[in-house]
Protein backbone atom coordinates (compact mmCIF):
# COMPACT_ATOMS: atom_id res chain seq x y z
CA UNK A 1 0.00 0.00 0.00
CA UNK A 2 1.13 3.55 -0.72
CA UNK A 3 -0.48 6.91 -0.07
CA UNK A 4 0.02 10.56 -0.89
CA UNK A 5 -1.66 13.88 -0.16
CA UNK A 6 -3.33 15.19 -3.31
CA UNK A 7 -4.66 18.50 -1.98
CA UNK A 8 -5.37 20.34 1.20
CA UNK A 9 -8.07 22.98 1.65
CA UNK A 10 -9.16 24.79 4.81
CA UNK A 11 -9.77 21.76 6.97
CA UNK A 12 -10.32 19.26 4.14
CA UNK A 13 -7.64 16.98 2.72
CA UNK A 14 -7.79 14.51 -0.15
CA UNK A 15 -5.64 11.38 -0.03
CA UNK A 16 -4.78 9.07 -2.90
CA UNK A 17 -4.24 5.51 -1.73
CA UNK A 18 -2.95 2.63 -3.84
CA UNK A 19 -3.62 -1.00 -2.92
CA UNK A 20 -1.33 -3.52 -4.62
CA UNK A 21 -2.63 -6.66 -6.33
CA UNK A 22 -1.03 -8.82 -3.62
CA UNK A 23 -2.86 -6.86 -0.90
CA UNK A 24 -6.13 -7.09 -2.81
CA UNK A 25 -5.67 -10.84 -3.25
CA UNK A 26 -5.42 -11.17 0.55
CA UNK A 27 -8.61 -9.12 0.87
CA UNK A 28 -10.40 -11.39 -1.62
CA UNK A 29 -9.42 -14.44 0.42
CA UNK A 30 -10.71 -12.74 3.60
CA UNK A 31 -13.97 -11.98 1.81
CA UNK A 32 -14.25 -15.66 0.76
CA UNK A 33 -13.74 -16.82 4.35
CA UNK A 34 -16.29 -14.26 5.55
CA UNK A 35 -19.16 -15.24 3.20
CA UNK A 36 -18.51 -18.87 2.23
CA UNK A 37 -20.92 -20.19 4.86
CA UNK A 38 -23.76 -18.44 3.05
CA UNK A 39 -23.04 -19.97 -0.39
CA UNK A 40 -24.53 -23.23 -1.63
CA UNK A 41 -22.59 -25.27 -4.22
CA UNK A 42 -23.91 -28.62 -5.40
CA UNK A 43 -21.73 -31.49 -4.25
CA UNK A 44 -20.40 -29.64 -1.21
CA UNK A 45 -21.78 -29.17 2.26
CA UNK A 46 -22.78 -25.58 2.93
CA UNK A 47 -19.68 -23.52 3.73
CA UNK A 48 -17.23 -26.20 2.56
CA UNK A 49 -16.88 -25.33 -1.13
CA UNK A 50 -13.31 -24.20 -2.06
CA UNK A 51 -12.86 -20.65 -3.28
CA UNK A 52 -11.89 -21.60 -6.84
CA UNK A 53 -15.03 -23.76 -7.18
CA UNK A 54 -17.26 -20.90 -6.07
CA UNK A 55 -15.47 -18.47 -8.41
CA UNK A 56 -15.85 -20.93 -11.30
CA UNK A 57 -19.60 -21.28 -10.66
CA UNK A 58 -20.47 -17.64 -9.90
CA UNK A 59 -17.65 -15.74 -11.57
CA UNK A 60 -14.25 -14.52 -10.40
CA UNK A 61 -15.65 -11.20 -9.21
CA UNK A 62 -18.10 -12.70 -6.74
CA UNK A 63 -15.95 -11.65 -3.78
CA UNK A 64 -14.71 -8.36 -5.24
CA UNK A 65 -17.27 -6.04 -3.60
CA UNK A 66 -16.62 -7.39 -0.12
CA UNK A 67 -12.87 -7.55 -0.81
CA UNK A 68 -12.83 -3.93 -1.95
CA UNK A 69 -14.57 -2.85 1.26
CA UNK A 70 -12.07 -4.82 3.32
CA UNK A 71 -9.10 -3.42 1.39
CA UNK A 72 -10.31 0.17 1.86
CA UNK A 73 -11.05 -0.38 5.56
CA UNK A 74 -7.51 -1.67 6.05
CA UNK A 75 -5.62 0.76 3.81
CA UNK A 76 -7.31 4.01 4.85
CA UNK A 77 -6.28 3.97 8.57
CA UNK A 78 -2.72 3.06 7.56
CA UNK A 79 -2.62 6.02 5.17
CA UNK A 80 -3.91 8.37 7.89
CA UNK A 81 -1.15 7.19 10.23
CA UNK A 82 1.49 7.33 7.50
CA UNK A 83 0.60 10.91 6.56
CA UNK A 84 0.23 11.94 10.24
CA UNK A 85 -3.28 13.33 9.82
CA UNK A 86 -5.50 14.29 12.76
CA UNK A 87 -8.91 13.44 11.32
CA UNK A 88 -12.19 14.52 12.91
CA UNK A 89 -14.85 12.95 10.70
CA UNK A 90 -15.62 9.98 8.47
CA UNK A 91 -14.07 10.06 4.96
CA UNK A 92 -15.79 10.24 1.59
CA UNK A 93 -14.34 7.36 -0.42
CA UNK A 94 -14.20 7.31 -4.22
CA UNK A 95 -12.78 4.39 -6.23
CA UNK A 96 -10.64 5.89 -8.99
CA UNK A 97 -9.21 2.76 -10.56
CA UNK A 98 -10.35 -0.83 -10.18
CA UNK A 99 -9.35 -3.18 -13.01
CA UNK A 100 -8.61 -6.87 -12.89
CA UNK A 101 -4.90 -7.58 -12.62
CA UNK A 102 -3.92 -4.00 -11.73
CA UNK A 103 -3.35 -2.04 -8.55
CA UNK A 104 -6.43 -0.42 -7.05
CA UNK A 105 -6.48 3.35 -6.57
CA UNK A 106 -9.00 5.22 -4.43
CA UNK A 107 -9.26 8.68 -2.94
CA UNK A 108 -10.46 9.70 0.50
CA UNK A 109 -11.69 13.21 1.27
CA UNK A 110 -11.76 13.86 4.99
CA UNK A 111 -11.99 16.74 7.45
CA UNK A 112 -8.99 17.24 9.73
CA UNK A 113 -8.19 19.35 12.74
CA UNK A 114 -7.73 22.98 11.67
CA UNK A 115 -4.40 24.75 11.86
CA UNK A 116 -4.26 27.21 14.74
CA UNK A 117 -2.63 30.60 14.08
CA UNK A 118 -1.64 31.56 17.60
CA UNK A 119 -1.40 35.23 18.56
CA UNK A 120 1.17 36.54 21.05
CA UNK A 121 -0.08 34.64 24.09
CA UNK A 122 2.45 35.66 26.72
CA UNK A 123 2.08 38.95 28.53
CA UNK A 124 -1.47 39.67 27.38
CA UNK A 125 -3.12 42.64 29.06
CA UNK A 126 -6.48 42.07 30.75
CA UNK A 127 -8.65 43.90 33.25
CA UNK A 128 -8.33 42.30 36.67
CA UNK A 129 -11.32 41.21 38.69
CA UNK A 130 -11.65 42.43 42.25
CA UNK A 131 -14.18 41.30 44.85
CA UNK A 132 -14.27 43.01 48.25
CA UNK A 133 -16.09 41.41 51.15
CA UNK A 134 -18.06 44.04 53.10
CA UNK A 135 -19.78 44.03 56.47
CA UNK A 136 -23.06 43.93 54.55
CA UNK A 137 -21.94 40.67 52.89
CA UNK A 138 -21.25 39.17 56.31
CA UNK A 139 -24.64 40.30 57.64
CA UNK A 140 -26.36 38.86 54.57
CA UNK A 141 -24.64 35.50 55.09
CA UNK A 142 -25.56 35.39 58.77
CA UNK A 143 -29.12 36.35 57.88
CA UNK A 144 -29.23 33.33 55.58
CA UNK A 145 -28.04 31.09 58.44
CA UNK A 146 -30.67 32.68 60.67
CA UNK A 147 -33.39 31.92 58.11
CA UNK A 148 -32.29 28.29 57.88
CA UNK A 149 -32.54 27.93 61.65
CA UNK A 150 -35.96 29.56 61.92
CA UNK A 151 -38.83 27.72 63.60
CA UNK A 152 -42.29 27.48 62.06
CA UNK A 153 -44.82 28.39 64.77
CA UNK A 154 -48.61 28.67 64.71
CA UNK A 155 -50.13 32.15 64.67
CA UNK A 156 -53.56 32.68 66.18
CA UNK A 157 -53.76 36.40 66.97
CA UNK A 158 -53.42 38.06 63.57
CA UNK A 159 -54.55 37.72 59.94
CA UNK A 160 -52.54 36.24 57.09
CA UNK A 161 -49.55 38.19 55.78
CA UNK A 162 -46.77 37.69 53.25
CA UNK A 163 -44.34 34.97 54.34
CA UNK A 164 -46.92 32.97 56.29
CA UNK A 165 -47.48 29.23 55.80
CA UNK A 166 -51.13 28.24 55.50
CA UNK A 167 -52.84 24.87 55.74
CA UNK A 168 -55.89 25.04 53.48
CA UNK A 169 -58.60 23.05 51.74
CA UNK A 170 -59.72 24.25 48.33
CA UNK A 171 -61.99 23.26 45.47
CA UNK A 172 -61.98 24.99 42.08
CA UNK A 173 -64.90 25.67 39.70
CA UNK A 174 -65.19 26.97 36.15
CA UNK A 175 -68.78 28.17 36.03
CA UNK A 176 -70.78 25.60 37.99
CA UNK A 177 -68.50 22.71 37.08
CA UNK A 178 -65.76 21.49 39.44
CA UNK A 179 -62.66 20.76 37.35
CA UNK A 180 -60.24 17.87 37.69
CA UNK A 181 -57.08 18.59 39.69
CA UNK A 182 -58.55 21.67 41.34
CA UNK A 183 -59.33 20.11 44.73
CA UNK A 184 -57.07 19.41 47.71
CA UNK A 185 -57.24 19.01 51.49
CA UNK A 186 -54.67 20.09 54.09
CA UNK A 187 -52.53 21.70 51.39
CA UNK A 188 -49.53 23.75 52.59
CA UNK A 189 -49.12 27.13 50.87
CA UNK A 190 -46.44 29.77 51.50
CA UNK A 191 -47.93 33.20 50.90
CA UNK A 192 -45.63 35.12 48.55
CA UNK A 193 -44.10 32.01 46.96
CA UNK A 194 -46.18 32.53 43.79
CA UNK A 195 -46.61 28.77 43.55
CA UNK A 196 -50.34 29.04 42.83
CA UNK A 197 -52.20 30.77 39.98
CA UNK A 198 -51.55 34.55 39.82
CA UNK A 199 -53.90 36.39 42.17
CA UNK A 200 -54.68 33.37 44.36
CA UNK A 201 -52.27 34.06 47.24
CA UNK A 202 -52.94 37.80 47.34
CA UNK A 203 -56.65 37.20 48.04
CA UNK A 204 -55.80 35.20 51.17
CA UNK A 205 -53.76 37.97 52.82
CA UNK A 206 -55.65 39.73 55.58
CA UNK A 207 -57.85 36.68 56.18
CA UNK A 208 -58.04 34.79 59.49
CA UNK A 209 -57.85 31.22 60.72
CA UNK A 210 -61.08 29.31 60.14
CA UNK A 211 -62.31 31.75 57.50
CA UNK A 212 -63.81 30.51 54.24
CA UNK A 213 -62.83 32.60 51.22
CA UNK A 214 -63.97 32.72 47.60
CA UNK A 215 -60.91 33.34 45.46
CA UNK A 216 -61.51 34.59 41.92
CA UNK A 217 -58.71 33.97 39.39
CA UNK A 218 -58.06 33.73 35.66
CA UNK A 219 -55.89 30.91 34.37
CA UNK A 220 -52.92 32.08 32.24
CA UNK A 221 -53.14 31.66 28.47
CA UNK A 222 -50.01 29.47 28.60
CA UNK A 223 -51.39 27.18 31.33
CA UNK A 224 -50.46 23.51 30.86
CA UNK A 225 -54.07 22.21 30.92
CA UNK A 226 -55.75 22.97 27.58
CA UNK A 227 -59.28 23.05 29.07
CA UNK A 228 -58.32 25.76 31.58
CA UNK A 229 -56.23 28.16 29.47
CA UNK A 230 -57.53 31.72 29.89
CA UNK A 231 -60.60 30.56 31.83
CA UNK A 232 -62.11 32.42 34.82
CA UNK A 233 -62.36 30.24 37.92
CA UNK A 234 -63.52 30.41 41.54
CA UNK A 235 -61.82 28.54 44.39
CA UNK A 236 -63.62 27.88 47.66
CA UNK A 237 -60.83 28.02 50.25
CA UNK A 238 -60.95 27.08 53.94
CA UNK A 239 -58.03 28.32 56.10
CA UNK A 240 -57.22 25.76 58.80
CA UNK A 241 -53.89 27.05 60.14
CA UNK A 242 -51.64 30.09 59.90
CA UNK A 243 -47.98 29.58 60.67
CA UNK A 244 -45.01 31.93 60.50
CA UNK A 245 -41.24 31.79 60.67
CA UNK A 246 -39.81 32.66 64.05
CA UNK A 247 -36.20 33.76 63.64
CA UNK A 248 -33.72 33.08 66.44
CA UNK A 249 -32.16 36.14 68.11
CA UNK A 250 -28.78 36.86 66.53
CA UNK A 251 -26.63 36.84 69.67
CA UNK A 252 -23.96 34.75 71.39
CA UNK A 253 -26.43 31.92 71.99
CA UNK A 254 -27.21 31.88 68.28
CA UNK A 255 -23.47 31.62 67.51
CA UNK A 256 -23.14 28.65 69.88
CA UNK A 257 -26.13 26.89 68.32
CA UNK A 258 -25.04 27.21 64.70
CA UNK A 259 -21.24 27.02 64.98
CA UNK A 260 -18.25 26.04 67.07
CA UNK A 261 -17.84 29.61 68.34
CA UNK A 262 -18.91 31.02 71.70
CA UNK A 263 -19.62 34.59 70.63
CA UNK A 264 -21.35 36.33 67.74
CA UNK A 265 -18.23 38.41 67.06
CA UNK A 266 -16.16 35.25 66.59
CA UNK A 267 -18.79 33.87 64.22
CA UNK A 268 -18.78 37.12 62.22
CA UNK A 269 -14.99 37.08 61.98
CA UNK A 270 -14.98 33.48 60.75
CA UNK A 271 -17.81 34.18 58.30
CA UNK A 272 -15.83 37.05 56.82
CA UNK A 273 -12.77 34.81 56.53
CA UNK A 274 -14.79 32.14 54.69
CA UNK A 275 -16.34 34.73 52.35
CA UNK A 276 -12.90 36.21 51.61
CA UNK A 277 -11.58 32.75 50.72
CA UNK A 278 -14.56 32.19 48.44
CA UNK A 279 -14.03 35.63 46.87
CA UNK A 280 -10.35 34.87 46.35
CA UNK A 281 -11.23 31.64 44.54
CA UNK A 282 -13.78 33.46 42.38
CA UNK A 283 -11.24 36.16 41.53
CA UNK A 284 -8.71 33.55 40.44
CA UNK A 285 -11.23 31.77 38.23
CA UNK A 286 -12.41 35.05 36.74
CA UNK A 287 -8.87 36.31 36.07
CA UNK A 288 -7.90 32.97 34.55
CA UNK A 289 -10.99 33.07 32.36
CA UNK A 290 -10.25 36.64 31.28
CA UNK A 291 -6.74 35.68 30.17
CA UNK A 292 -7.87 32.59 28.25
CA UNK A 293 -10.81 34.45 26.71
CA UNK A 294 -8.51 37.23 25.48
CA UNK A 295 -6.09 34.76 23.87
CA UNK A 296 -8.86 32.64 22.33
CA UNK A 297 -10.63 35.67 20.87
CA UNK A 298 -7.34 36.90 19.38
CA UNK A 299 -6.65 33.54 17.72
CA UNK A 300 -7.35 33.12 14.01
CA UNK A 301 -9.18 29.82 13.77
CA UNK A 302 -12.22 28.56 11.89
CA UNK A 303 -13.81 25.87 14.03
CA UNK A 304 -15.17 22.91 12.01
CA UNK A 305 -18.92 22.47 12.28
CA UNK A 306 -18.57 18.78 13.18
CA UNK A 307 -16.63 19.71 16.33
CA UNK A 308 -19.20 22.35 17.28
CA UNK A 309 -22.06 19.88 16.94
CA UNK A 310 -20.12 17.32 18.97
CA UNK A 311 -19.62 19.86 21.76
CA UNK A 312 -23.31 20.84 21.66
CA UNK A 313 -24.19 17.19 22.24
CA UNK A 314 -21.71 17.05 25.12
CA UNK A 315 -23.20 20.18 26.71
CA UNK A 316 -26.68 18.71 26.27
CA UNK A 317 -25.68 15.49 28.03
CA UNK A 318 -24.24 17.49 30.92
CA UNK A 319 -27.42 19.54 31.15
CA UNK A 320 -29.55 16.39 31.23
CA UNK A 321 -27.27 14.84 33.85
CA UNK A 322 -27.90 17.83 36.12
CA UNK A 323 -31.62 17.06 35.99
CA UNK A 324 -31.03 13.39 36.72
CA UNK A 325 -28.79 14.19 39.69
CA UNK A 326 -31.61 16.28 41.15
CA UNK A 327 -33.83 13.21 41.22
CA UNK A 328 -35.78 13.63 37.97
CA UNK A 329 -35.31 9.99 36.98
CA UNK A 330 -38.85 8.70 36.53
CA UNK A 331 -40.18 8.12 33.02
CA UNK A 332 -42.83 10.77 33.60
CA UNK A 333 -40.06 13.39 33.51
CA UNK A 334 -38.39 12.12 30.32
CA UNK A 335 -40.38 14.22 27.85
CA UNK A 336 -40.07 17.34 30.01
CA UNK A 337 -36.31 16.89 30.37
CA UNK A 338 -35.86 16.19 26.65
CA UNK A 339 -37.72 19.41 25.82
CA UNK A 340 -35.52 21.43 28.20
CA UNK A 341 -32.33 19.82 26.84
CA UNK A 342 -33.33 20.38 23.20
CA UNK A 343 -34.17 24.04 23.90
CA UNK A 344 -30.82 24.42 25.66
CA UNK A 345 -28.94 22.86 22.74
CA UNK A 346 -30.62 25.22 20.28
CA UNK A 347 -28.99 28.19 22.02
CA UNK A 348 -25.69 26.54 22.87
CA UNK A 349 -23.85 26.94 19.55
CA UNK A 350 -21.90 30.08 20.53
CA UNK A 351 -20.78 28.52 23.81
CA UNK A 352 -19.89 25.25 22.09
CA UNK A 353 -17.83 27.01 19.41
CA UNK A 354 -15.93 28.94 22.07
CA UNK A 355 -15.26 25.78 24.13
CA UNK A 356 -13.87 23.94 21.11
CA UNK A 357 -11.74 26.91 20.09
CA UNK A 358 -10.34 27.18 23.62
CA UNK A 359 -9.44 23.47 23.61
CA UNK A 360 -7.66 23.78 20.25
CA UNK A 361 -5.75 26.88 21.36
CA UNK A 362 -4.60 25.26 24.59
CA UNK A 363 -3.53 22.11 22.72
CA UNK A 364 -1.61 24.22 20.18
CA UNK A 365 0.27 26.03 22.97
CA UNK A 366 1.08 22.71 24.66
CA UNK A 367 2.62 21.52 21.41
CA UNK A 368 4.51 24.75 20.74
CA UNK A 369 5.86 25.02 24.28
CA UNK A 370 6.57 21.27 24.41
CA UNK A 371 4.81 20.98 27.77
CA UNK A 372 5.48 17.63 29.43
CA UNK A 373 4.51 15.92 32.68
CA UNK A 374 7.14 14.26 34.88
CA UNK A 375 6.63 10.92 36.60
CA UNK A 376 6.62 12.72 39.97
CA UNK A 377 3.91 15.15 38.83
CA UNK A 378 1.84 12.30 37.47
CA UNK A 379 2.08 10.26 40.68
CA UNK A 380 1.28 13.32 42.81
CA UNK A 381 -1.89 13.95 40.78
CA UNK A 382 -2.92 10.29 41.09
CA UNK A 383 -2.50 10.58 44.88
CA UNK A 384 -4.69 13.71 44.96
CA UNK A 385 -7.41 12.02 42.90
CA UNK A 386 -7.32 8.94 45.13
CA UNK A 387 -7.60 11.10 48.26
CA UNK A 388 -10.61 12.94 46.82
CA UNK A 389 -12.46 9.61 46.50
CA UNK A 390 -11.82 8.68 50.16
CA UNK A 391 -10.78 5.16 49.18
CA UNK A 392 -10.34 2.72 52.06
CA UNK A 393 -6.72 2.09 53.06
CA UNK A 394 -6.70 -1.57 52.03
CA UNK A 395 -7.96 -0.67 48.53
CA UNK A 396 -5.92 2.51 48.03
CA UNK A 397 -2.93 1.08 46.17
CA UNK A 398 -5.12 -0.98 43.87
CA UNK A 399 -7.21 2.09 43.11
CA UNK A 400 -4.08 4.10 42.26
CA UNK A 401 -2.78 1.35 39.98
CA UNK A 402 -6.12 1.28 38.18
CA UNK A 403 -6.00 5.06 37.68
CA UNK A 404 -2.47 4.91 36.32
CA UNK A 405 -3.47 2.34 33.73
CA UNK A 406 -6.98 3.38 32.72
CA UNK A 407 -6.68 7.17 32.96
CA UNK A 408 -3.01 7.85 32.24
CA UNK A 409 -3.56 9.88 29.05
CA UNK A 410 -6.44 11.85 30.55
CA UNK A 411 -4.46 12.76 33.68
CA UNK A 412 -1.37 13.75 31.68
CA UNK A 413 -3.41 15.93 29.29
CA UNK A 414 -5.18 17.57 32.24
CA UNK A 415 -1.86 18.40 33.88
CA UNK A 416 -0.47 19.76 30.60
CA UNK A 417 -3.47 22.08 30.21
CA UNK A 418 -3.20 23.19 33.81
CA UNK A 419 0.48 24.03 33.28
CA UNK A 420 -0.34 26.08 30.18
CA UNK A 421 -3.07 28.03 31.96
CA UNK A 422 -0.75 28.73 34.90
CA UNK A 423 1.97 29.91 32.50
CA UNK A 424 -0.40 32.21 30.61
CA UNK A 425 -1.87 33.73 33.78
CA UNK A 426 1.54 34.23 35.41
CA UNK A 427 2.80 36.09 32.35
CA UNK A 428 -0.35 38.21 31.95
CA UNK A 429 -0.45 41.91 32.80
CA UNK A 430 -3.49 42.73 34.96
CA UNK A 431 -4.69 46.32 34.88
CA UNK A 432 -7.34 48.19 36.87
CA UNK A 433 -10.73 48.62 35.29
CA UNK A 434 -11.44 52.06 33.82
CA UNK A 435 -13.18 54.43 36.22
CA UNK A 436 -16.46 54.10 34.32
CA UNK A 437 -16.46 50.32 34.63
CA UNK A 438 -17.52 48.94 37.99
CA UNK A 439 -16.40 45.37 37.41
CA UNK A 440 -14.86 43.17 34.77
CA UNK A 441 -16.90 40.22 33.63
CA UNK A 442 -15.69 37.33 31.54
CA UNK A 443 -17.34 37.41 28.13
CA UNK A 444 -17.56 33.65 27.94
CA UNK A 445 -17.45 30.97 30.59
CA UNK A 446 -14.36 28.95 29.76
CA UNK A 447 -14.94 25.38 30.83
CA UNK A 448 -11.31 24.53 30.13
CA UNK A 449 -10.09 26.83 32.94
CA UNK A 450 -12.06 25.44 35.84
CA UNK A 451 -11.48 21.79 34.99
CA UNK A 452 -8.13 22.23 33.25
CA UNK A 453 -9.80 20.85 30.16
CA UNK A 454 -12.27 18.21 29.10
CA UNK A 455 -10.37 15.73 26.98
CA UNK A 456 -11.91 14.16 23.92
CA UNK A 457 -10.92 10.57 23.41
CA UNK A 458 -9.38 9.48 20.12
CA UNK A 459 -12.67 7.71 19.37
CA UNK A 460 -14.57 11.00 19.82
CA UNK A 461 -12.30 12.78 17.35
CA UNK A 462 -12.60 10.09 14.74
Fraction of residues in H or I helices: 40-55%
At CATH level 3, the topology of the largest domain is: Trigger factor, domain 2
* Rg for CA atoms: 34 Å
How far is it from the N-terminal to the C-terminal residue, by CA?
22 Å
Largest sheet: number of strands, sense, barrel closure: 5 strands, antiparallel
Shape: extended
Domains counted in the coordinates: how many? Answer: 3
Please write the CATH class name of the largest domain. Mainly Alpha
CATH superfamily of the largest domain: Trigger factor, C-terminal domain
What is the tally of beta strands?
11
> What's the overall average pLDDT, rounded?
90
Order of helices and strands: EEHHHEEEHEEEEEHHHHHHHHEHH
Question: Which architecture of the largest domain per CATH?
Answer: Orthogonal Bundle
> What's the number of helices?
14
Q: What portion of residues belong to β-strands?
A: 15-25%
What structural class results from the helix and strand content?
A: alpha+beta
Unreliable stretches covering 5 or more consecutive residues: 437-446, 453-462
Amino acid sequence: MSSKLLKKGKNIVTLEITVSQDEFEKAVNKAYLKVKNNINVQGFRKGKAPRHIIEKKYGKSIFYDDALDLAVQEAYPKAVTELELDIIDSPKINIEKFEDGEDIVFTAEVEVMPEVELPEYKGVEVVKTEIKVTDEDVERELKSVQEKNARIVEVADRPVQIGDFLTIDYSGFVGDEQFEGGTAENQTLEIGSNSFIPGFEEQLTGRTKGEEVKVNVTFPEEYHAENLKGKDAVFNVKIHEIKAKELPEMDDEFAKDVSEFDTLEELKADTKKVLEKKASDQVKISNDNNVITKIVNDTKLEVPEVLIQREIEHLGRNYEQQFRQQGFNDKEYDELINNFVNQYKEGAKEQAEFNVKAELVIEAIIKKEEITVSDEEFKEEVNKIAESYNVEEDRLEGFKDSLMQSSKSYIEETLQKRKVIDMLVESAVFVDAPATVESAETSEAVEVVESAGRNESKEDKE
